[in-house]
Amino acid sequence: MNDVRRKSPRAPTLALPDALDRVEKVYAAEGRHATPTEIVAQALGYKSATNGSAAQTIASLRYYGLLERPKEGFLAVSKDYENYKFSPEESQKQALVIGWLRTPAIFSALLEKYDGRLPSDATIRFDLIGLGFLPSGADAYVSVFRRSVEFARFYDRASEQSVEDLLALPTTPEQPTGQQPEVATGTQPQPPHAVHVPHVAAPVAAHNPGVIRLPVRLPKERMAWLELPIPFYEADKERLKAYIDMQLADDPDDE
């Protein structure tokens, strides 16, 4: 019986920040010109494109979409990388990084699976094996994936957006104490309108199932947490914002 050698699925062997460093070498040497694969390998520091490490590096850059193949035997740096390199807008650069992170099919599948934050390395390894990776090689891919996600600040961005969405929701005036709103004849009074808290990065507090905790990323690598009751009303939101304005803003932000 013939032995069929099983291989792991195609995925980058370089973390995204390392891949960006490598593609910069190609861009510095060749710009965006279509360049023979052999010369691209030399720009990356290898003697030949047939070198195993050179082939892996080039493959990783292609999996992220940093290198394109305009024709057989030639490679070119993507236009997106040039936009990233020269864009003055941090938001555009961040969007490109997120796009590259999602480009490898394996990374995209894992990001869809993990809501809010990454699990442990052991869980990622288990999921990679479930996706067809060899157990002997899965650990290296765990590290590559985690470093790439952390570099892209994938979940930090989601946390920031969820809090911004929460505090930007429109408000409705609160009824004065003891005053009942007018209700048309034949209709039932409606309960106060509750603010919908985004699902992303809003875990239920372990000690109290009626409370959610929202992470808020602050300057200088600091993190704050908001604990909010369920339901959370628009009047609650306004009171929270007013309290922060009056009580908690002691010093100017000196980022």
Question: How would you characterize this protein structure?
Answer:
The structure is a single chain. This protein is mostly helical. It has 2 domains: 16-152, no CATH class; 157-172 and 193-248, no CATH class. It has a 3-stranded antiparallel sheet with strand order 1-3-2. The protein has a two-stranded antiparallel sheet with strand order 4-7. It has helices at 16-30, 37-43, 52-64, 79-86, 90-102, 105-113, 121-130, 135-152, 154-167, 234-248, and strands at 35-36, 67-68, 74-77, 194-195, 211-218, 222-229, 232-233. The model is unreliable at 171-178 and 198-202 (pLDDT under 50). Helix 1 (16-30) packs across helix 3, helix 4 runs antiparallel to helix 5 (90-102) and helix 7 packs across helix 8. 48% of the residues lie in helices and 11% in strands.
Uncertain stretches:
171-178, 198-202
Structural class from helices and strands? mainly alpha
Helices and strands, in order, run as HEHHEEHHHHHHEEEEH
Q: How are strands sequenced across the largest beta sheet? A: 1-3-2
Would you tell me the overall average pLDDT? 80
Distance between the termini: 66 Å
Total separate domains: 2
- Which assembly state applies to the chains in this document? single chain
* Fraction in beta strands: 5-15%
**Largest β-sheet summary:** 3 strands, antiparallel
The radius of gyration is 25 Å
